[in-house]
Structure formats: structure tokens, C-alpha cells
Specification:
Length: about 425
């Protein structure tokens, strides 16, 4: 089983002070769905980006040249302060805790622990000593032989977990790295060709996955009969590339493949429609549905920014239901998403421990605060969450009543 349990970060993007997020409920179980609400520019997207950025740092570190700096994005008013991450997760049924502190010049501290028998146990720690200008490493006794010789191939701008995953086949390292490379999946609204390619591959097959894909889509598209797909991959030839491109670039591009995707939707009335002719929402739904089925099948974690974007509300609602349904989600995949769709607040299936808010305030240098609904006092069990959220009870949202709108237009006319 894979699971995101806890994530915290500090001094990154719009997060000046430490923010903490957990999927654990008061019952001690991790929720399969967590949702984050907040006004525009309150930092919802930055939360998803922060998790994705930690993933990027770990996966890209092994390819960093020794003279390169580390790409970090601290809060604007604390540029000289280090950025920190702490994450707890399960990978292949084993619980891990990972800590990373760094700046543009070097990794300051990095720790990896696991809980092989329910008790915390060290794998390694790495701390920069500013006086000696070197690193102090410590390992659990049974990892010294495997990991100590990697110290010489891990310069200050590289992450030890990334280097160890490149050189060693240890389960503890491989599982930790796998969580970031495979388990944690992100969709932040930017078209990723790999998502539509995966959907096209499923639709091209004659598998149970294709049947499930179409059945799910029929909920959204009444009258749909069949979807067929053709995926054509072709090696890029150097001679086919523009001659004015540098030869080094042409050689690099020729190592890849070009992909042509043709998806057609057939309806009960006999009409066949090319996907390019469908609405933006249908295109987006087909793009993400294939990878979502993979995530459910493998018990992975999906971070999704603005789930309702380009969708009819019923589509977002049905995606949430897929993760909440224990039959559809038998491998306990997790969905963590941001949204403006207040209708989802009325869902009794999303527990109050799993509803979060972001807010930026002038008192805190306009940095983002993150907190769960369960931390707010005087929220009654039968309270109308949707109504009270729109009133601004749980977090600040821009409220424009009729009087303010009329006054705004009146002031504009007065200036003419």
C-alpha cells in the first residue's frame, strides 16, 4: 500500500512560515480524498506545487552538474532563509519519514527514517557543518557498508536520496525514491502529453480497462456507444528535421519518437465524432481518465489543481466518487485536490478532517496559511458548510453583494 500521511514545508513560494497538512483523521486513518478551498491567489495551487517541487528536486538532483546551483523559490521577504520540507508516507506498506533543508547553494540537512516494525529507525542523516565546511553523515549499523562509500559522489548541491537510488538496489532507498518517481502523480492543469497518450493506449486495447473507461465516460456522455483510438509512434529521423537547427539539437531530437493520436467517439445514433471536435471539457475528461484508472489500479496518489477546471460539476463530482468508492478504489489510492466548486462541500463522504482552507493575511506579510475545517471552533455537525463558506466563515473570500456592485458601477459612471 502507498499513502501520503503528512507534508510540511517552510519558506517556499507563498509559504513564509511552516505549514502542515495531513490525510490522517481523528480516527487515525488516512482519508482517500482531501480537498483544499480558498480565494484566488490564496495559495491553493502553491500547496500542490510545493509537493510537486519536492518531487522535482529529488528526481532531478542526480543529473545536476557540480557547478550548478539548486533551484529554490523562497518567500519574497525571506530570501536568505533556508527552505524546508518534511514528509511522511508509505511505500510498499512501509512507513517512511524524510526531511530536507536546503538553499540555492547547498543541501543543509537531509534525513531518512523508516518504521519497519512500527518503531522509528534511522536509515541515514546528513548535516552540513558550517565550521568545517563539510558534511557529517550517520547511518544505522546495517546500512554503513552500503551507503558510506556514496559520500564522495554526493556533492553539496545533490540530494543523497537521489544519488543512493542511482547507485544502490537497497529496498529502503528504492521504495523511498519510488514514492516520488512513481506513486506521487501531479496534474496542475498544464497539458501533459503523457496523460492523453496513456488514455489513448487504453482505448486502443481490447482490455477490461477500456470497458471500464467507456462505462465511466457514459455517465458523463449519455448516448455514447464506443470510443476507438489509434496511436502511431514513429522514430524522428535527422533528415526530417529543419536543416537550420544545430546538429547537436537535431541529434538529441532524433533520439525521441513522434506520436500521432487519433481518438473517435461513436454514439448510439450512429454519429462518429473526432475528439478534436468535442468540447474542451470532454477532451480534458478523456485526457485524465486513463491515468486516473492507472492511479486507482496501482493505489497511487493524485495531486490535482482545480479539479473542476474545464469540467461540468458532475464530472468533478464523479471523479471524487471514484476515489471514495471502496469497490472502485480497492487499493486505497488517494486524491488531494484544490477547487472552487462549493457543491462538493455538501458531500457527506468527504469528512471534515479532510476539508482544508488557504488564506493570506496582511498581518502575516501576505504569506499563505493552511488549516483544516476541524481546527475551526463552533462548527456544528449539521452546519450548512456550503452556505457558511460563501459567507466567509471559514476563510476569507471576496464577497460582492448587490449594494457593492451597484456602488461600483455608480462610481465608474461618476468618473466619466
Amino acid at each position: 500500500m502507498n499513502e501520503l500521511i503528512y507534508f510540511g514545508c517552510e519558506n517556499l513560494f507563498s509559504f513564509k512560515d511552516k505549514v502542515e497538512f495531513t490525510t490522517e483523521t481523528r480516527k487515525g486513518e488516512s482519508s482517500s480524498v482531501s480537498v483544499i478551498y480558498g480565494a484566488n491567489a490564496s495559495g491553493k495551487t502553491n500547496f500542490i506545487k510545493s509537493l510537486d517541487f519536492l518531487k522535482f528536486l529529488i528526481l532531478s538532483s542526480k543529473d545536476r552538474s557540480i557547478e550548478d546551483g539548486i533551484p529554490v523559490f523562497p518567500f519574497k521577504k525571506t530570501l536568505d532563509k533556508d527552505t524546508e520540507f518534511k514528509i511522511m508516507f508509505k511505500s510498499n506498506n512501509v512507513k517512511y519519514a524524510y526531511y530536507l533543508k536546503l538553499n540555492k547553494e547547498r543541501v543543509i540537512e537531509e534525513n531518512l527514517y523508516h518504521y519497519p516494525s512500527g518503531k522509528i529507525s534511522k536509515i541515514y542523516t546528513r548535516i552540513y557543518n558550517s565550521e568545517s565546511k563539510g558534511y557529517e553523515f550517520e547511518y544505522a549499523r546495517n546500512y554503513i557498508k552500503e551507503l558510506k562509500n556514496l559520500e564522495t559522489v554526493c556533492p553539496s548541491n545533490k540530494i543523497f536520496l537521489s544519488v543512493a537510488a542511482l547507485w544502490k538496489e537497497m529496498d529502503e532507498i528504492r521504495n523511498s525514491f519510488r514514492f516520488f518517481s512513481e506513486v506521487l502523480q501531479t496534474n496542475i492543469g498544464i497539458g501533459d502529453v503523457r496523460w492523453i497518450e496513456r488514455s489513448a493506449e487504453i482505448l486502443e486495447s481490447n482490455s477490461k480497462e477500456k470497458e471500464r473507461f467507456i462505462e465511466l465516460l457514459k455517465v458523463i456522455l449519455p448516448g455514447l456507444k464506443m470510443i476507438n483510438s489509434e496511436v502511431e509512434r514513429k522514430k524522428i529521423l535527422i533528415d526530417e528535421l529543419p536543416s537550420d537547427l544545430p546538429m547537436e539539437l537535431r541529434i538529441l531530437m532524433s533520439q525521441n519518437e513522434s506520436t500521432k493520436i487519433d481518438i473517435k467517439l461513436e454514439y448510439e445514433n450512429g454519429v462518429v465524432v473526432d475528439l478534436s471536435e468535442e468540447s474542451k471539457g470532454i477532451k480534458r475528461c478523456i485526457e485524465i481518465l486513463g491515468p486516473i484508472l492507472d492511479i486507482l489500479k496501482n493505489g497511487n496518489i493524485l495531486l490535482f489543481d482545480e479539479l473542476e477546471s474545464s469540467f461540468h460539476p458532475i464530472i468533478a463530482e464523479n471523479i471524487v466518487k471514484l476515489f471514495l468508492d471502496k469497490n472502485q478504489n480497492s487499493n486505497k489510492a488517494q486524491l488531494i485536490f484544490t477547487t472552487h466548486d462549493v457543491n462538493l462541500l455538501d458531500s457527506e463522504s468527504i469528512g471534515r478532517d479532510s476539508i482544508w482552507f488557504t488564506e493570506r493575511s496582511a498581518e502575516n506579510d501576505l504569506s499563505t496559511e493552511l488549516y483544516p475545517l476541524s481546527s475551526i471552533e463552533d462548527v456544528k455537525k449539521n452546519e450548512n458548510l456550503r452556505k457558511n463558506y460563501l459567507k466567509g466563515k471559514y476563510s476569507w473570500i471576496p464577497i460582492m453583494d448587490n449594494f457593492k456592485i451597484e456602488k461600483l458601477f455608480h462610481d465608474c459612471r461618476s468618473d466619466e
